[in-house]
Fold this protein.
Amino acid sequence: MKGLAESLEAFAENNCLLFSCTFKFSVRMVRTSLNSLVVLINRVFRSSTTVVE
């Protein structure tokens, strides 16, 4: 039983590490996509305002 508990603990630690890495990566991806979206919206807004003028 002790060996099983230890292996479960190690498994949980590895999963937490994997999860945190995945989470950091997805947060970075969301940030970059949000930034590009904002840039795109700004460009569209600028071009539409220049067209209106």
